[in-house]
Design goal:
Helix content: 25-40%
CATH architecture of the largest domain: 3-Layer(aba) Sandwich
Order of helices and strands: HEHEHHEHEHEH
Bound molecules: flavin mononucleotide
Radius of gyration: 19 Å
CATH class of the largest domain: Alpha Beta
CATH topology of the largest domain: NADH Oxidase
Structural class: alpha+beta
Largest sheet: 5 strands, antiparallel
Distance between the termini: 21 Å
Number of strands: 5
CATH superfamily of the largest domain: NADH Oxidase
Shape: globular
Length: about 210
């Protein structure tokens, strides 16, 4: 059997390989992402479901090879995130529109729908051999000013897309973070049935 990357999920139940081997790296190999791959990732996001098909998302993109653009977007991140996101192949900011386009009412699902669109992007990126690391740690107000984000919209998250440096040659703190295994709560702690706190699935031996 081939050895799995330490970040590979250790699922209790079978899941799709794309989901199992997705992870959020800190050590990126500093190289650009092909234009066609960026388009494919954002196309996947485009086809996400959304409440009333409102598509309350906008993405702002900065490519590594456009150095000034990349620096500008990087400067909107909090310093702790800049430290590693500087090596990404591309950066994105997600922008949420708070009200429905069709009637102007507040859209309670807007942030949910952005997350869902990004989920599609992440799976597609993984399929292309890319790694995605999302960030809430950014200066949203600075980003608003920088990009002239209009009223009724908020900058929500940032996204680093690129190539994890899995060469094993890096010995820095970022690479050390990437060596740690991923973990999750057990299903029984987050899936209930009948009443709060009552696990939906019985513990049983897998066949
Ligand atoms: C919406 C969102 C915001 C996040 N913000 C940050 C962040 O600001 N900085 C950071 O280093 N990681 C951030 N993360 C990454 C999470 O810490 C990471 O997804 C989590 O620890 C699970 O690790 P995994 O993605 O490798 O499975 C964020 C993830 C999401 C989905």
């Amino acid at each position: 059997m081939t050895q799995q990357h330490p970040k590979h999920a250790t699922p209790d139940h079978p899941i799709h390989e794309l989901i199992a081997h997705r992870w959020s790296p800190y050590a990126y190999a500093p190289r650009p992402v092909p234009e066609a791959d960026l388009e494919t990732c954002l196309e996947a996001a485009r086809w996400a479901p959304s409440s009333y098909n409102d598509q309350p998302w906008t993405f702002l993109l900065a490519r590594r090879q456009d150095e000034a653009e990349f620096e500008t977007m990087l400067s909107c991140l909090l310093p702790g995130n800049q430290a590693w996101a500087k090596d990404a192949g591309a950066l994105l900011l997600t922008v949420v529109r708070r009200r429905f386009a069709h009637n102007g009412n507040p859209n309670k699902a807007a942030e949910h729908d952005i997350g869902l669109a990004v989920g599609m992007l992440v799976v597609q990126a993984t399929e292309l051999g890319l790694h995605v690391h999302q960030m809430i740690g950014l200066d949203a107000e600075k980003a608003r000013q920088t990009y002239g984000v209009p009223e009724g919209h908020d900058v929500l998250t940032a996204i680093a897309i690129g190539y994890a440096d899995t060469s094993g040659e890096r010995t820095d703190d970022l690479a050390a973070r990437d060596a740690k295994a991923r973990s999750r709560r057990a299903l029984a702690e987050s899936v209930y049935s009948g009443r709060w706190g009552h696990p939906a699935f019985e513990e049983r031996e897998r066949p």
